[in-house]
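Hi there,

I know you've been waiting on this one. I reran it after we fixed the sequence typo, so this is the corrected version. Both the input and the resulting structure follow.
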Amino acid sequence: MFSVVQRWIRDFIPFDHPDDNSTQFGSGLESAGQSAFFRLWRGFMTARVLIALLLLLFQVLQRVLSINQQLLPLLVCIGYFFATVAVRILAKPTPKGASFDRQWMLSIGIDTVIFAWLQWIQQQPINYAPLLALPVLLSAVMGSVMLALATAAAVTLYLLGAAWQHSSVLSLDIAAGYMQAGLTGAGYFALAILANQLSQRLLREQEISRRTQTAARQQTQVNELVIETLVDGVMVVDIEGMVQSLNPAGRTLIEPDRSRARYFLPFPLSSEHGWKPLSDLANQTIQSRLPQFADVIIQHNKEAGRRVRIKTQLTRSDDSQTSGLCVFFLQDLPEIEAKIRQEKILAMGRMSAAVAHEIRNPLAAISQANALLAEDLKKPADIRLSQMIAQNSERLARIVDDILNLVRVPGEPTGRSSSFLLDEAVQRIAEDWCQQNHSPSKVFLAMSSPGVRVIFEPEHLRRILVNLLDNAHRYSSGNRAAIVVCTQINSTANAQLIVWSDGPVLEPTVQKHLFEPFFSSESRSSGLGLYICRELCEQHGAILGYARKFAPTGRMDAAQGNSFMVLFQADVPLVPVTHVQSNA
């Protein structure tokens, strides 16, 4: 029997499913579980349960005191109590309707019928008419204005009918009964209109609040995404010195290496001694209420200090009593200097390329005129002067070519890359260089990767190796095997070319700018050779680097030297092979 009743209730009453969190009261409203309107509906349903319980207790008390022995009112109150409990537990609010639908029947209709019936059959001087205000109020809040007015009209008609019935049965003044019923009905009409207007306003404000919250939530998500992906660091500090927000770039700049991911927001700036400059800047910004600019060094114990450029800004505060939040904008100072240096280099490159292009034609004319004059010269002094002109013209031509290559290299296509045997190509280029420079005993070749093919442009490899050999020759000693050219397979199974010389080890300041254009430790050099070599390597997926290390082979007696390494992109799987050594 219970299962039959339960099935009937499930078919007739809209249930609140546990997994249904998207119940809507109208277009664009929030889910029922989060809506103020839903809580209001729950409040009404709870009030109905309490009223039904009071009516039931009142009927029981009448029977206990032998005031009213009728069984039917007690049964009606019991049924009404269980009906209100069922609606409170199982039902859920539906969109506002303008008709007497199922929701109206389960709540407003039942209340109106029960209260009207109790008022009709009363025998004691008990007035149930005030309870009729509940269905009028419920229809005004949960329904449309037409439904509210219709409910108020139905209750008013009932009161007028009840007044006529009581005056006829009890022989009372019918005018007074009608007057009281009319005034009560007018009050119900006013209550219906006012409650419906308040309900509509609640819905409008709730919709505005929902849209505002959605816009604010979206804006917050966008702001967080932008801040998280910023290259510069952003940190927010309150007036108490607590860090409220810090993006990943900011953590990298200020946090010590030993405490990565140890600090969870919020945390105090005073927790690390290295953050004292940041704390001082925050205090200055809050006290002066003006932006602050500073270049500081953040150093934690024995770690290397980080040079950081900081700009602080105070947020606006709606309350004049508060100081707002201090926002830090953090930038890596070495990176800023590198960008400025790179911009200068690019500007110099463009200007130098334009100047070199203009110099090239007059220089060619000078070289040609000098060659024509040299044919008629007889005196040794004149011949020596002509040779000096030719040598310096050749030097100027090389500088012009380097400058023009600086402009052309980044734009050269890489489609000409081909696969060739590394050892054969390196040995051929090195032997040609030795013949041209008349120093075969000075270079030692150690080809340790026979059969290994690499992907590169042969002419570009020649330019790179010749440039590295020229540098090694310029700074190496005149001893035998002062330069070692080696090919080998490294620990990561990649082929590499190493050019080592026994010259003085480069200073750290020189190493730092080694591959930058227009940088050279020698006044007679353009400073473009290594830069062009690196650009050519990157075009073919190779890497050019520098290291201080022993000679790879052949000169193990040397304490140290300078090594330039080219790491190639292999064309076939590499396998270790035996070393093949030879003198150029």
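Quick highlight: The mean pLDDT is 76.

Best,
R. S.
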